[in-house]
Amino acid sequence: MILVISYDEDHTLDVIGRLEAAGREVARFDLADFPAHGVINFDSSDGNQPVCTLTTPSAEASLAGCRVAWWRRVRPFTVDPTLRTARDQGFAASETSQALYGMLHALDCTWINPPSLDAVAHHKPYQWEVARRVGLVLPRTLVTNQPERARRFIEDVGVGRTVFKSFLAHAEAWRETRLVRPRDLAHLDAVRYAPVIFQEFVPGADLRVTVVGERVFAAEIDASATRYPVDMRTVVDEARVRPVTLPPALTDTLLRFLRRLGLVYGAVDLRRRPDGSYVFFEVNPAGQWLFVEHRTGLPISAEVAGLLARTDARGEAPDRARAVASRPLVGRTA
């Protein structure tokens, strides 16, 4: 059985459809269903292997037969709305985390990606340092919640040549990457409320590099002629998108980078300067790929489904896909 941890979104559904068409048994659970709308059972007796089952409005499965699990996208737990106080809500979420993550961590299966490593790899300062160590080139960067330090950085790099961005861009709180304009200088005191990423602006074409196991799918996204070339995510429908082949040395470096992070899947964002050199921005361990696949024909969904199916058949995967027992499973909960 292939376990999928995610919610209703096209990437998951397309891959599940491919797996089911190939005769694979798949059980998908949205962690946001627990505990208010889901049932967790862990039944252990007489020294036998525990019987672990999960039930939600859309799925029910015993986890005993799980050989591979896809840690795709995680949402916070939903507690019963009759719990009125923050203390009670926090207690319910904490207890759910202990039970559910404990059961998942105990599974004798291969994770794509291992949840604990996936959680750590989401942190940009960490991935930046790993990227630097493997030889990737990064833009000049400052993370600070000190307005004076931000002002000095902008003065040094230049107004109109510095961008600022958030660490996470949720649909509920979207923040696009923006160039610092003269009018923004009057609002720099707001930096004190939370750390902000400031970077030198790198001209050139974006590249989304999707790594699935040992396969690398690269696409160029040229937003230079669009209405907002600073952040291709906001104008991807206007951008020119085409498949490209990376230099072999860069491909090898990116694969080594993901191995250092312990990731099997990752969506890497690069930019190619006009002189042909490459600059690394970030890797998203749960990044999207369908917008690339639809525009280029790159068979990314088929490769994700194939990797899960092959791992299910063998009961094993590349070393970096194995859960590390000594590392705690990190859950992102409310």
Structure, described:
The structure is a single chain. By secondary structure, the protein is an alpha+beta fold. The protein has three domains: 2-108, no CATH class; 127-137 and 202-297, ATP-grasp fold, B domain (D-amino Acid Aminotransferase, Chain A, domain 1), CATH 3.30.470.20; 140-200, Dna Ligase, domain 1. Helices cover 29% and strands 24% of the residues. The strands form four sheets. Strands 14-13-12-15-16 form a five-stranded antiparallel β-sheet, with helices on both faces. Strands 2-1-6-7 form a four-stranded parallel β-sheet, covered by helices on one side. Strand 4 and strand 5 (59-62) form a beta hairpin. Helix 1 crosses helix 8 (300-314) and helix 4 crosses helix 6 (248-261). Mean pLDDT is 91; it is low at 317-334.
